Amino acid sequence: MKVLQCSLASLVKNINKKYFLPAIQRSFVWDEERIVELFDSLYKDYPIGNSIFWKIDNWNNKLCPLYQFEPSHKEREKKIAAQKQGLKQGSYQIVLDGQQRLTSLFIGYKGSFSTKKPGKGKKSFIEKHLYFDLLENDFSEGYSQFLFMTKEDAVEDQKHHLWFKVEDAYTANKFDEYKQQVKIIKKSIGPKLWQNKSKIITERLKKLFKMTYDEERFSYYEVRRPFSEFECVSDIFTRINTSGITLKKADLLFSNLITWWGEDGQNEIKMVMENIQEISTDISQDFIMRSCLYLSDLTVKYNLKNFNKPNIKKIMENWPQIKTAVDRMLENLDNIGYVDSVKGLSENALIPFLYFIKLKGKNPTSEELKQFKKYYIASQICGTFGGNSDSVLSNMREEIKRQYLKTKTFSYDELRSKKSKVYTLYHINKEKLEDIVENTQYGTARAYYALMLMYPSGTGGKEIKYQMDHVHPKALFTKPYLKEHKCYDHYEEWLEKRNRLPNLQLLASLNNKEKSKQPIVDYVASIKNKKTRSNFINENFLPEKKLNIESFEDFFRYRKGKIVAKLCKILE
Q: Cβ(403)–Cβ(397) under 8 Å?
């Protein structure tokens, strides 16, 4: 990047001719006060920060649409900029950072700012232009030398002020024209006021013109990268527009999507997201945006470049089927083991299920739901979508297509066969499960779904709410307690192991409340009915003996073996 400079007049002159907004632009949000502050800072020669422009040589409309700055703005209006039509191929600058400042300069020098007054309709807005006080002899609190006013207000307010329309400085076209403006003002205000204020009027007008035509007044960085590096430029945009905090990628892609689809597309996706939020607060807009690509059989890679005009056209063609598939998926989330509000849940694991529903064109059968439940839970336990999810998703789509063309259905066992492109991801052996069980931590999606397989009743149904709980309460793993039970030497090691899967269980909310922080050995002993106590021990994979804290190491080893054996039997 290199730093370039130009005058404010040159900048404004080239807005919507040379300088444009990208598809990922935001609405203009500055109010009157912010615009006035900007002009005041410029007049006082304060720094306003450098903008960042992206120069594209040999631009044409097939590369990307360009959007216009709006010269007029209505208070509290959040208007999406209009696309520039009829633009010829050539070299243009896209504003990556500085939209609010450039729009404010455009409004101040060439446009207007309308404020709301009581009432409805167009007449309820008052159109005002930016004026500059050539006298500045009012030093009361709240006074500003720049102000948005109507022409009538500017004329009436001449007792202590002499308001000059800032647009007249821009339309003068050059710095020396301030002299001509001085002559015009001299005639308009009369000899008495001119005699007293000629010096300050001339100095202030000259300074306003100097601010407007100084060739070094506006600085900007110029990014010179080819359009093929659009993703890199998009990353620059997200960082500089959020002070180093990355914007949600879905917001940027959604902005590009509605660029081509329009308001109808915005409403369609909003409606689908509202339906999703009624069922699950954890499924994000990212899920829908990625699913649009996936269910339209487009490239899976989730980036701005893939949301181009041809791809969006294909998404629009597929939208009725996508929308129906989402509705059917929501109806069946419980049936495949989906549980809302589980930490670390991979929503990408739902996308192949969604694809199958669209491919089939109707609701899955009960057997297909059972097969997808195995797939979904195994995906969460194995962390299948935690790495290169684009590659996994792409291969999963090919596998679902293969199975559907062959049998018109879906089989988890077939997914794990050597014919499958995802065979290695779902080929789970004892060694792999031992590693998973040993290292799975409390509160994670992997822990929840491993426990769900171990506890057939804990399927996340709506009637009974199940909670993850420590078998040996974590509150007992303190230095005083372990010292009291003569196992203080294991403090560091056991402190880490207490949150791992062999010390976790699923309990119904009521049972969890009853157990609370009670040592497991005391809780089991409190179950007076022999058969109930035996069932509790078996259902929770507990040893008959050695439930005291002193035997935690033996307990951990025993339960790890039981869990691995159970998961092996189910997943293999």
A: no
**How many whole angstroms separate alpha carbon 514 and alpha carbon 467?**
13
The DSSP code for 85 is P
For residues 100 and 127, the answer to whether their CB atoms sit within 8 Å is no
Give the three-state DSSP class for 157: coil
Question: Quick one: which H or E segment has residue 491?
Answer: helix 491-497
- Of the candidates 141, 185, 193, 187, the residue with the CA atom closest to the CA atom of residue 164: 185
Report in angstroms the alpha-carbon separations of 195 from 140, 181, 206, 208, 239: 25, 17, 18, 21, 54
Strands 72-74 and 112-116, bridge-based pairing = parallel
Beta bridge partners of 112: 72
416-474 tens-digit pLDDT: 999 998 988 888 888 888 998 999 999 888 898 888 888 765 444 444 456 788 999 98
pLDDT band at 324 (very low <50, low <70, confident <90, very high): very high
CA 279 to CA 277: how far, in whole Å? 5
Amino acid at 278: E
Q: How far apart are CA 290 and CA 301, in angstroms?
A: 8
HSE (side-chain half, CA atoms, 13 Å) at 408: 4
Q: How far apart are CA 553 and CA 543, in angstroms?
A: 12
Q: What's the confidence (pLDDT) of residue 67?
A: 86
| Distant-in-sequence, close-in-space partners of 271: CB < 8 Å, separation ≥ 6 | none
Sequential DSSP letters for 116-147: E-SSSSGGGEEEEEEEEESS----STT--SEE
Measured torsion, CA atoms of residues 252, 254, 256, 262, in degrees rounded to the nearest 10? -150
Give how far Cα 133 sits from Cα of 30, 33, 153, 166, 212, Å. 22, 16, 13, 10, 16
The set of residues, in sequence order, having a beta carbon less than 8 Å from that of 152 and lying 6+ positions away, is none
Q: What's the pLDDT at 141?
A: 55
pLDDT, position 510: 46
Query: For residue 202, which of 172, 174, 181, 217 has the smallest C-alpha distance?
Result: 181
Length of the chain: 572
Average confidence (pLDDT) over 517-534: 90
Quote the mean pLDDT of the chain. 86
Highest mean pLDDT among 167-176, 221-230, 251-260, 520-529 belongs to 167-176
Are 15 and 69 within 8 A, CB to CB? yes
Q: Do residues 363 and 372 lie in contact, with contact meaning Cβ atoms separated by under 8 Å? A: no
Residue 237, pLDDT > 70, answer no
Strand duo 19-20 + 90-97: pairing: parallel
What's the rounded Cα separation, in Å, for the pair 553 and 83? 68
Distance (Å, whole) CA 451 – CA 237: 43
Q: Provide the b/e sequence for 382-419 (b: ≥16 CB within 10 Å).
A: bbbbeeebbebbbbbbebbeebeeeeeebbbebbbeee
Predicted local confidence at residue 301, as pLDDT: 86
